[in-house]
Amino acid sequence: MATSTAQMRSMQGVAIPADSVNPRRFFELTRRHTLLEQSITYDGQDQIVVPLRKADIISAISVRFVGTLTTNDGTGTVKSSRRWPYDLLRRVKFSANGQSQLIDCSGAKLKVRDLMKSADLTDRSVVQSVAGASLSNGTMALAGEAWGTGSGTTAVVDGAKDVDLLWHIPIAEDERDLYGAIFLQTTSSDLTLTLDLTPLAQLIPITGDATATLTGKFEVITHKFSIPAENGGIVVPDLSAFHAIIENRYSALNSGPNEPIVIGQGAGKSLLRIYWQLWNGAGTAAVPVPLTSAGYGEVGWRYGSAETPELYPNGSVLRQDQERRYNSDFAGVWGFGCHDFVSENSFRDVVDMGTASELRLVLNLQAGLALTSPALEVVTETVFLAGQAA
To answer: How far, in Å, CA of 326 to CA of 318, rounded?
Structure first.
């Protein structure tokens, strides 16, 4: 007697029955799961590798740090650098199912992406101290967070101070339709979350006999969806695509025009947004350059020989455009600039990185901006089909 063999389909490098893919039925039957995966004590280590349970479909991970910053200046000094507090996570790395480092960026880059993606999220009226000024817009802070001390504080107050920070890691590009979410319910699934941590001395620099300690714990919380069973099989959405957020660093910068090439271009990849932060200064004295006309002349992006779809006359114009778009002035406070191709109409605006060759940023740095050990940190957010490199 002839026997039939179920047709298989590869999604994100994992083979599943082709007739299991039914997005509409999946969303009717699935159940959302939000669970604490790990709680890890922080004792000054420089890296934490977090094993995640292989179950369900993962759409996002939340990382929370809760602890205490204790300082005493003695006869010395205690300051905070502008990397404090969100770049406590120096690098967040997530790999899954044969794709290395789908997420590879700093904590601050994840905080600002959260504001870019979530139209109903705002930092307005959340007061934090930045460079000695109390600000209620652009801090990227949640009301429930506690920084312990401000960012760029020249004299940190002695004593024990509560620290409570939250970062959201978007595994899926869209956590409603789960585009880019990861299928975990198979022994062949492979995923790794690595948290590289910034040494405290780079965040809270001290001099003389001053002391500074940070104690606490990291909580790793996963946001998943159950995989329903029906008619003897499973039901899943279309998980054929991966979602990536990758940060790269450029140091060859000069006053005047700069056109850094976007790293990671290739056929089959769609660019959702590209955003950046320019740091100026050496070591713990480095500060993000605000997105204003004082620092930036023309700002845009270009491809091919000279195709320039968007070119803002100066940084202040882009800053205003971003505040209107995101309801936050993180461009003025943290210096983030962004070209967003999905905030209004992704079908119309998304950039095909296969046809838009030699994609690059256009950054004209003003002559009045004195550059000292400048570093441009550029983040690309993309989606692509399995089998292509991030």
So the answer is: 12
